[in-house]
């Protein structure tokens, strides 16, 4: 296998034996250190979860584990996208795993995008501290109706030139990680079109309105509502090219979707493992649930769906390592994986019955974690429309 590249720097590919040892080390870390620290009763206590994640990160570092795409000099592993598949699946088996290993959203996709787009000054001020875990970021694009959601043409936030800088006005909503972010990547419309701006959280006019409650447990950083009122930034706040904000967002989302797929496959696999164990022990009308054909069918379908999900995700990762455009393939993978992991988790709940909807096991929380993926990073319906339009426009073979 060759070497992938990210932002002009090589991403190494390890010998298979070394990679297998790394994955086994990670599996043991998740099983013996991370999962035992999951306190389901504290699932919505952000501060408590943050403290545990910080403790786990220190343990991970001592075991030679860290951010899979991060640079080795910053405590990362420099893995290729292909190598990340197994790594992120193992990390994703726990609610806390991605945060303990600094590979959870929104920081990971923000690092990926800034690594390609940031100027030297922006790298020093924002990206380098982000890579070292000294600062946190968020990506502020989504707006309340009638602003931008799945349709980027509805972007309302604006940025107008003012002297040698910019003045930003806008209303952002459901911004993941914003409650603890030190800075935001704000998407706003200029005369040239949608553009990206780096805005420090302490900039006058940048206001966190509230944290929007959601059904997700173990949610570090929240989903904030933000208002930007005459928020002035300097000329060095512009990221990449003016008017290219949507292209920059697509670049960011391709990696983000892939990371979501990897993590959520791990979480869905864990839910089914719990359900399978329950089915082998629980009796109904004199027989074990595992002996009932309808239960067997759900288990079989889950294994088929996760096998297909892994295969699609791995194919997209290989294409990304090869430097290919993955826009079409990542959309297909995102739709399939989002729906597959939801179905697997739903089946796990069904097999476990009343126990599955309780919080005596993680199964119900896993289901709640996975359900939003059909909406996040582009709703399934929007992706299906885009996939069909590309296929029809370019005559793509199915």
Descriptive key words:
398 residues, 3 domains, disordered N terminus, globular, 49% helix, Butyryl-Coa Dehydrogenase, subunit A, domain 1, Butyryl-CoA Dehydrogenase, subunit A, domain 2
Helix and strand composition category = alpha+beta
CATH class of the largest domain: Mainly Alpha
CATH architecture of the largest domain: Up-down Bundle
Helix content: 40-55%
Integer count of domains: 3
Instruction: Give the CATH H-level superfamily of the largest domain.
Output: Butyryl-CoA Dehydrogenase, subunit A, domain 3
User: Order of SSEs, N→C?
Assistant: EEHHHHHHEEEEEEEEHEEHHHHH
- Largest sheet strand order: 3-6-7-10
Beta strand %: 15-25%
Largest sheet: 4 strands, mixed
Examine the coordinates and then state which fold CATH places here, giving the name of the CATH topology of the largest domain: Butyryl-CoA Dehydrogenase, subunit A, domain 3
Number of helical segments with 4 or more residues: 12
Per DSSP E runs of 2 or more residues, the count of β-strands stands at 12
- Mean pLDDT equals 92
Sum up the overall morphology in one term.
Answer: globular
Distance between the termini: 28 Å
Rg over alpha carbons: 21 Å
Q: Extract low-pLDDT stretches.
A: 1-10
């Amino acid at each position: 296998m060759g070497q992938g590249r990210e932002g002009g720097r090589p991403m190494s590919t390890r010998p298979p034996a070394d990679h297998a040892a790394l994955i086994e080390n990670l599996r043991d870390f998740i099983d013996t250190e991370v999962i035992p620290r999951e306190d389901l009763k504290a699932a919505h206590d952000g501060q408590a979860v943050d403290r545990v994640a910080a403790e786990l990160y220190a343990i991970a570092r001592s075991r030679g584990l860290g951010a899979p795409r991060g640079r080795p000099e910053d405590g990362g592993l420099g893995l290729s996208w292909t190598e990340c598949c197994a790594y992120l699946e193992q990390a994703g088996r726990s609610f806390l795993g991605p945060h303990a290993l600094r590979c959870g959203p929104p920081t990971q996709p923000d690092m990926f995008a800034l690594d390609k787009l940031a100027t030297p000054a922006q790298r020093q001020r924002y990206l380098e501290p982000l890579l070292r875990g000294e600062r946190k970021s968020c990506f502020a694009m989504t707006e309340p109706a009638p602003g931008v959601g799945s349709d980027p043409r509805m972007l309302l936030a604006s940025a107008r030139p003012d002297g040698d800088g910019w003045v930003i006005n806008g209303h952002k909503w459901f911004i993941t990680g914003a409650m603890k972010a030190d800075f935001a990547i704000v998407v706003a419309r200029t005369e040239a079109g949608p553009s990206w701006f780096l805005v420090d959280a302490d900039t006058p006019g940048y206001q966190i309105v509230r944290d929007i409650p959601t059904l997700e447990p173990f949610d570090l950083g929240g989903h904030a509502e933000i208002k930007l009122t005459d928020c002035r930034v300097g000329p060095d706040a512009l990221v990449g090219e003016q008017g290219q904000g949507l292209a920059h967002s697509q670049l960011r989302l391709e990696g983000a979707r892939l990371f979501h797929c990897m993590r959520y496959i791990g979480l869905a696999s864990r839910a089914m493992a719990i359900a399978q164990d329950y089915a082998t022990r629980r009796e109904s009308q004199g027989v074990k649930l595992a002996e009932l054909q309808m239960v067997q069918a759900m288990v079989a379908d889950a294994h088929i769906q996760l096998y297909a999900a892994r295969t699609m995700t791995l194919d997209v990762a290989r294409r990304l390592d090869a430097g290919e455009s993955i826009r079409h393939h990542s959309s297909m993978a995102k739709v399939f994986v989002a729906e597959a992991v939801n179905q697997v988790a739903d089946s796990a709940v069904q097999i476990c019955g009343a126990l599955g909807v309780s919080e005596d096991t993680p199964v119900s929380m896993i289901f709640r974690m996975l359900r939003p993926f059909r909406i996040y990073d582009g709703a399934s319906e929007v992706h299906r429309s885009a996939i069909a339009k590309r296929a029809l426009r370019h005559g793509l073979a199915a």
